[in-house]
Amino acid sequence: MSAKNHPAYKEELKRLSYTLEYVEQNLSALTARKSDLDKDMESGKKHFSSENSQQYIDLMIGSMLQDRADVKLRNLIAARSKPYFARVDFQENEKQSSEKLYIGKMALIREEDQELIIVDWRAPVANLYYEERLGDAHYVSPEGDVLGQMLVKRQFSINEGKLDEMFDIDITTSDEFLQASLGSSADNRLKEIVSTIQAEQNQVIRADMWRPLIVQGAAGGGKTTIALHRIAYLIYTYEKTFKPENFMIIAPSKLFLNYISDVLPELGVEKTKQTTYEEFAFNVIGQKLKVNDSNQKLIQFVEINKTEEQKNYNELLRKQSELKASMAFKEIIDQYIETIESEFIPKEDFKLVGRVILAYDDINKLFIKDYRRHPIVKRIDEIKKHLQNRLKAQKEYLSESVQVKCDRYIANAKRVMEPSDQRQELIVKAIDKKNEIISNLQEHSKTAVKNYIAKISKTNPLQYYRDFLENEELYYSIVLDKIDKDTAVFLRSYTLKILDSDTVDLEDIAPIMYLKYKIYGVDEKIPVRHIVIDEAQDFSVFQLFTLKQIIKDSSFTILGDLSQAIHSYRGIKDWNDINRYVFDEKSEMLTLEQSYRTSVEIMEAANEVIATLKDPKLIPAKPVIRHGDPVLVTKMSNRKEIAVDINDRIKELRKQGFKSIAIICKTAKECEEMHSLFKKGKDSPYVITGREKEYKSGFLIVPSYLAKGLEFDAVFVADASEENYTTSELDTKLLYVALTRPLHKLYIYHIGERSKLLENV
Questions:
Q1: pLDDT digits (tens, 9 = 90+) for 165-182
Q2: I want to staple 714 with a disulfide (CB 3.0 to 4.6 A). Which of 94, 247, 736, 745 is the partner?
Q3: How far is the C-alpha of 672 from the C-alpha of 528, rounded, in Å?
Q4: What is the pLDDT of residues 613-655, one digit of tens each?
Q5: Domain range summary for the chain, segments of one domain joined by +
Q6: Which CATH class is domain 600-758?
Q7: Burial (CB count <10 Å: 0-12, 13-18, 19+), residue 237
Q8: Residue 8's CB: how many other CB atoms inside 10 A?
């Protein structure tokens, strides 16, 4: 509704003017304070002396104040345009009057009397807006459950400080308001969604931090955006306990991290750690490994017209990848570690000048049983301390023993022999021998422990991994219990071959990192308390298990969509596996069924495709009631015809204001072929290869397996023919990914017969 037509327009206009005026006052005062602070910091740095501890403390405090001022300044500048987006009037039970609460992206408090002008969307009371309806309502505060009545629930559209629209609503968002938000064009980045967070999304965002959370989210359900909002909420809620640096996002690629980068500062979470699994693993392993492009393996699986030999090779490649990604491979590595343990201690006693200080069996018992709670190499440190203590006690005992023997010899000589040169010579020789023995004891004791420990050989995690594969007898004795002979032979030869080329596959990283953890432990405590993993369906159970073992004290939020599990040969097939193996069945599982990205027509077409797999774990997405044009399926003779038709349609789409347009091809090779059919120049499409460090928007050509997580105004599926997309699980999921990328327009082409997956589209 146009704001001017609303009966409360004058009241709300007055409130908006008051708020904006207060924002400007705050902005002016903060800008002046920030300027003074910057000058003080600059002066402090110029005159800094490392010997003056107070100066160092002042600089640290000043830097912290600068950071806080920067965040507040950025928030106030944003508030000039949109100070708030909603209002709720809430009257607590037993109270005579109601409170008018205006909810925005940041809190604004009147300093003179601590009056709350704007409530932060993350505050407990804001839950009234996200989850409650008019009438009886409640919210949970730190002090407990607050009961009352919600009298007004109002939504605003404020742009550039002007009140454009306002709606009185009952549920989270009026249909009209949500439609306007969903109907906007895609650009090159994610958007914050604080004004349109739905109840099911809000439950994910505000879920208990300390209980592991697994979220199965439909395509277009806002998983990535919700993940970032969850971090923002947790940072706000636990700001007195944790720093933003204590939170970590693990994303599938650098390109994905770049894609989400713009929304992070808007939510105040830019200092959160952002990494990929590989980067995290390299830091733990202490060695950067060259990882083969995992998409190349996927390409091998999706290529058509393969020979029987290629098909057999791919089947073995897939089976060995599945094994490496599984908990069965973790058990294999555990068995291998047991053999490392059994041979780690040299089979000899610890001696000092020929005398046994501690027998091998006793040392090995310490290593295998008494110190088992420590990683292997850390146990050696404990054994070293034990040997040093035993040596010290034995050295003193031996020295005293030699002294006693010497004293007895001298006393006996004096008793049986008359004083003479001969007796004196024997006594001197006895004393010299005693001194020599004690000197030898002293000398050998300095290096005895060091020399014994030096006989314990250890190598780096990658070499341990290679040693396992190279030890043919040991390898087969362990692996053949888990997998057939052909796959076992292939896994060994294939992995040794890539190791010889100084590379590893993505599936090799978890076992190598696990070896590092079990043998060496982690070099230093990783200061991460909560980890958010997006696109988690393409992570393996072994990967997540290893991560949880290494960061024991951290909690997790895991989000993904099994319908988009295109790397299923190494990914997750059932969220219950994560609940069981990683979290000991203590996690909470939530489902986001609603899809907010696409129109009803597009989502129904995509659901028809994924339904062909007949897998009950693949929950169909429910589109928000936003209708659009029908999905257009067109038969063409060749790719050149497709390119011409796309070119004509893009001209029309641009006239309609659509800027973000993608041609989705099945493979990178197909992308290059399609790209060659367009004229070169500023309007030619940009091909996504997966090697980009920066995400580009506009007119793109992208392979299906790199389209996951992205969205566009319009999408052209280049060739959804029967030959290109078979009814295999992988082809089905790749086509589903392609079909769920557009917000508004979807065009599907096929050369020859259309894919059987599209029979009902």
A1: 998 987 655 445 555 554
A2: 745
A3: 42
A4: 999 999 899 988 788 999 999 999 999 999 999 999 999 999 9
A5: 3-171, 213-286+525-595, 294-340+461-516, 346-454, 600-758
A6: alpha beta
A7: middle
A8: 14
The mean per-residue pLDDT over the stretch 703-714 comes to 90
Percentage of the chain beyond pLDDT 90 is 52
Do the domains 600-758 and 213-286+525-595 match in fold?
Answer: yes
Per DSSP, what are the bridge partners of residue 99? 90
How far, rounded to the nearest angstrom, does the alpha carbon of residue 204 sit from its chain's CA centroid?
16
Could you confirm whether domain 213-286+525-595 is CATH 3.40.50.300? yes
Among all chains, which residue has been given the structure tokens 């007895």? 408
Helix ranges, 551-611 (H): 575-581, 600-611
Rounded Cα distance between 105 and 23, Å, is: 13
How many Å apart are CA 347 and CA 307, to the nearest integer?
53
Cβ–Cβ under 8 Å, residues 168 and 152: yes
- CA dist 76 and 680 (Å) reads 44
Q: Are 214 and 179 in contact (CB under 8 A)?
A: no
- C-alpha distances (whole Å) from 301 to each of 535, 566, 571, 739 are 20, 11, 15, 20
Burial 531-541 (b: 16+ CB within 10 A, else e): bbbbbbbbbbb
Which residues of 186-314 form beta strands (DSSP E)?
A: 213-217, 247-251, 273-276
Query: Token pair of 739, please?
Result: 């079909």
Structure tokens at 751: 């050369």
DSSP states of 110-173: ETTTTEEEEEETTSGGGHHHHH--SEEEEEEETTEEEEEEEEEEEEEEEETTEEEEEEE-SSSS
Residue partners of 465: CB distance under 8 A and separation at least 6: 499, 508, 511, 512, 515
Q: Which of 726, 727, 736, 725 is nearest to 562 (CA)?
A: 736
Q: Which amino acid is at 391?
A: L
- The more confident residue out of 255 and 736 is 736
Average pLDDT over residues 65-90: 85
Give CA–CA dist 529/541, Å, rounded.
Answer: 20
CA distance 750 to 632: 11
